[in-house]
Amino acid sequence: MKYAFIRAHREEFGVRAMCRVLRVHFSGFYAWLKNPLSQRAQEDVRQTELIRQAWAESGRVYGYRKLTDDLRDQGERIFENRVARLASLAGIAAQVGYKRRPGRYGGKPAIVAENRLEQRFEVAAPDQVWVTDITYIKTHEGWLYLCVVIDLFSRRVVGWSAQSRMTTDLALQALLMAVWRAKAKRAGHGAFRSRLPIHEPGVADVSPPAQPRTQHEPTRQLP
C-alpha cells in the first residue's frame, strides 16, 4: 500500500522524501515497480486458479472444505481458512440446496383407516404384519421419495417404491410389490401398518385378488 501511494503521488512529491516519511527504503520502491505483485499475491493468484478449476470440475457444487481436499490431493500445502478466503474473493460458493424442499403443498385430505395393529410388534410368523415408512433423498436433480415395506417377523424389505413426488401411488406401489412377492393366496392373511394414509376410493380395484388385509396408522397426509 505504501509503494502504491508513492507511485500515485511521485509527480507531486519527491520519491525519497515520501520514502523517508513512510519509513520505507527507496530501493525497495524501485524493486516493487519492476514487479508490483508480491510473492504472496502471486501465490494467491495461482491458488485461486486451482480453486476455480477444482470447483468447475465438481459441477460448481463443492464448498471450501472439499476444495481444500482437492488441492491437497494435488500436493498443495493449504489450509481451509485460506481456501475459504480466496474462494470468497473469487465469488466461488458451494451449492447448498434446491428451490423446492420436501413438505406439504396442499391437496385434499386422505381417508384414514382404523388402526388395528395397536403397536403390537411381536409377530410369530412371516407375512403377518408389514410396516412401512417414507423418506426422502437429496439428489442433483431434486428430491427422491422412497417408500419401503418391511416384514416385522423377518425384518426384511418385502416391497419398495421410489418416485419424484410423495403421492398415494408411491405407497401403493410399494405395497403391491410386497403383496406380489409374498404371493398371498387368501384375504385376511396379514396386517399392514403405515405411517402415511394410502387408502383412497378405487384403490381396492387396483389391488390383485390375493391381497392381504391392509390397515393403516397414519401420522400425516398425502397431497
UniProtKB/TrEMBL annotation:
Q: Which GO terms describe its biological process?
A: DNA integration
Native species = Thalassovita taeanensis
Name of this protein: HTH-like domain-containing protein
**Basic and acidic residues bias located where?**
214-223
InterPro entries according to UniProt: HTH-like_dom, Integrase_cat-core, RNaseH-like_sf, RNaseH_sf, Transpos_IS3, Transposase_IS3/IS150/IS904
- According to the record, the residues making up region (Disordered) are 199-223
* Protein origin, superkingdom: Bacteria
What positions does the domain Integrase catalytic occupy? Answer: 122-223
Extract the NCBIfam families matched here.
Answer: transpos_IS3
Q: Which GO terms describe its molecular function?
A: nucleic acid binding
Pfam families to which the protein is assigned, alphabetical: HTH_21, rve
